[in-house]
Design goal:
about 160 residues, Pyridoxamine 5'-phosphate oxidase, Split_barrel_FMN-bd, Pyridox_Oxase-rel, single chain, alpha+beta, 3 helices
Length: about 160
């Protein structure tokens, strides 16, 4: 697959992370809801060093706008290089409410997959952006002498 040592993880620079964030349109937003973490898929777009997504009233919005920081994670696979990558943005979410800011963000190509009213714009202001890239392990690495043995059905 690659000439790199098995398990080699490349820490990505901030600019490489932002470049990857610009290529992905869907990420997973991690928030704290009541007494547990929860994750929501969101369509997002990079806007002046922040991430913006659309949403509606509900659990995701309430949790994102709470005092607890949020995280947004994207990942992907570079088939040509046989490498996977992952970028995590940690920070605070804030609702975009000022008229000028709303006008500036309304023209962003931010198109949610799910139909419905999603007129609330939220901005994630990063406190930390990290990323890594690593070679994909050859599937043979995970094979054991018992991988081809079928189990009897449970009764």
């Amino acid at each position: 697959m690659t000439d790199e040592p098995a398990g080699h993880v490349e820490e990505l620079s901030s600019s490489a992370c932002w470049e990857l964030l610009r290529t992905a349109r869907v990420g997973r937003l991690a928030v704290w809801v009541d007494d547990h973490p929860d994750i929501f898929p969101v369509n997002h777009i990079v806007d002046h060093g922040t991430l913006v997504f659309r949403t509606a009233e509900g659990t995701k919005l309430a949790a994102a706008l709470s005092e607890t920081p949020v995280a947004l994670e994207i990942d992907g696979y570079d088939e040509g290089a046989a490498k996977a990558w992952s970028v995590v943005v940690r920070g605070r979410a804030e609702q975009i409410q000022r008229p000028q800011e709303l006008m500036d963000t309304m023209d962003l190509p931010l198109l949610p997959w799910q139909a419905g009213r999603k007129g609330i714009l939220v901005r994630i202001v990063p406190e930390l952006v990290t990323g890594r890239r690593f070679p994909i392990a050859d599937p043979e690495v995970w094979r054991t002498p018992f991988s081809g043995v079928r189990r009897a059905p449970s009764e």
